[in-house]
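Morning run. Coffee first, then this:
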Amino acid sequence: MQFITLLAAFAALFVFGNAQVLPPYTEDCQHGMYANHARCAGMPPTIEVNLDQDPSVRWNGVVQHKKKELVAMIGQIKLLVGAISPKIITAVDQYLPELIQKLPEPYGAEIQGIAKASGLPDGEILLFNIFYEIFTVCTSIVAQDNAGKLYHARNLDFGLFMGWDVKNHTWLITEYLRPLVVNVNFTRGGKTAYKSVNFAGYIGLLTGIKPNAFTITLNERFNIDGGFVGMLEWIMGQRDGHWTSFLTRTVMDKATSYDEAMSMLTKEVILAPVYYIVGGVKSGEGAVVTRDRTKLDNVMAMNTTAGEWYVLETNYDNWTNPPFFDDRRADAKKCMDHSGKKGIGFSSIFDVLSTKPVLNQLTTYTALMQVNAGKLETYIRECPHPCYPW
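And here it is:
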């Protein structure tokens, strides 16, 4: 896997280059973090997206609320991409707008609407959406308590290798993303259809809840046949696959149950290998779906008859060991086991997701979901220095 090789090389350089001053990037499981919203920079606003409106205008409220931050984010992406070659930005502005017409509806019209409302070029809004199709690093958990009530939570980490901020000891893209976090309440007929956590300007779905039905989070799966390959094929005209985050939004919109969601997520062709983490409303309805671009590789379901009460996924296949330099899985499982099934809930899961290195310099937000109540809480995160860089 080329990415893991690159990450290993970076890890070795970082560790051995700082061996004399290596700070404590891991720590004991945290407690009492939820009550004080510790290690948080605040909670994002909740903004309605009315699905009864024309796709070209339904995101206007989000853009109006976060236009300044979106413009700054796109500017930072252009600086990073332009540093590779200024011709890339020229190509983005010249050629990507043509590809918007190839997106399935309503996504093409939504991207054009966001571009118009923000005053940014169509191609640059599409580029912003492509970024998340290629690479995110995350931790997702579905757990149930003694009464069989299910909780679904996640940290979304993004920005690795995208400009290191020496002054603030963090990644530049991560810094620009945090102010863009919004909770979106998708409505239809005046009622909530589903909810999500989004970055303003991004129309896919990485974290979502359909009240009294199911919850979904999406984690990147590192694979040589990854998002770059699928996206390149799509650009070149092979468009039989779904964008991974468009599929999750389609599932949120169309599926009415955990079983329907699982069926769609396991069968559809997608552009990138991915982990779909799914929770339902009934005891034991929790699973990690491991996907290749064209086929299902594995389903790790919660086996309650064997005493299992949670499933957990970072960014590595559950049947293999994570690399030594990124074993967030072990730290998260340790803290989940320490909390125990009896005490599980928003507070204890928040503690798990607030413990280094599960919480790290790439963490943009933590989301907590409870499907029966239709409850979604989101916290913009900050990791106190010293903090693991990924």
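Residues 6-23 have pLDDT under 50 and may be disordered. Good start to the day.
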